[in-house]
Amino acid sequence: NAGVTQTPKFQVLKTGQSMTLQCAQDMNHEYMSWYRQDPGMGLRLIHYSVGAGITDQGEVPNGYNVSRSTTEDFPLRLLSAAPSQTSVYFCASSTRGDSLSYEQYFGPGTRLTVT
Amino acid sequence: DAKTTQPPSMDCAEGRAANLPCNHSTISGNEYVYWYRQIHSQGPQYIIHGLKNNETNEMASLIITEDRKSSTLILPHATLRDTAVYYCIVRVASGYQKVTFGTGTKLQVIP
């Protein structure tokens, strides 16, 4: 299994540009999430999904859209990039909550700079 | 989810045990304690979790106090590769929760 994969690893955008961060998992996990991590800070939840076709907002959803058309993929869209969105973005997946090993698997991250 | 409190940083000599504390005084009866770590801006990595009994796996041991208001993650023989930020999280083990990662403890293993 490849686990959780994210593309691209690095991205530089100009203010106002849009882009999509890709996330895929091959573990047949129901739950997927997007987090952002700013320098010296913990992870903050942007959006999450509990299954295909179901998404919801996290702590900091403004400026981001998500969709979940398949179990495997959970892309994050930046609608109009702003310098405040400069951050490292992590995607995570986990099994359904009835598993006692309910651990999240994280991708390697996408480092985004908005100029 | 119950909130957790961790010291911002700790040092540990290489080869010694690293004991990382976490306070979770408002933990509910059905909430587990989970530990993750993040090595140098990589994605966080699951370490261990427990409810009330002490737990051990190949990476670490987790000691939970009898009243469950605090816990300690123990890395028995710290190596330089254990230098990382360690996050303590409490949550129920069923259903989906908006898990909050605080700022964790930055563990520096010193040669």
Task: Give an overview in words.
- The complex is a heterodimer of chains A (115) and B (111).
- Chain A is mostly beta strands.
- In chain A, 0% of the residues lie in helices and 50% in strands.
- Chain A is built from no helices and 11 strands.
- Chain A has strands at residues 4-7, 10-13, 19-25, 31-37, 43-51, 54-57, 64-66, 76-78, 87-94, 104-106, 110-114.
- In chain A, strands 2, 4, 5, 6, 9, 10 and 11 form a 7-stranded mixed sheet that branches.
- In chain A, a hairpin with a 5-residue loop joins strand 4 and strand 5 (43-51).
- Chain A starts with a strand and ends with a strand.
- The model of chain A has no long low-confidence stretch (mean pLDDT 91).
- Chain B contains no helices and 9 strands.
- Chain B has strands at 9-13, 18-23, 31-38, 45-50, 55-56, 61-64, 70-75, 84-92, 105-110.
- Chain B has a 5-stranded mixed sheet with strand order 1-9-8-3-4, with no helix packed on it.
- Chain B is globular.
- At the A-B interface, strand 4, strand 5, strand 9 and strand 10 of A face strand 4 of B.
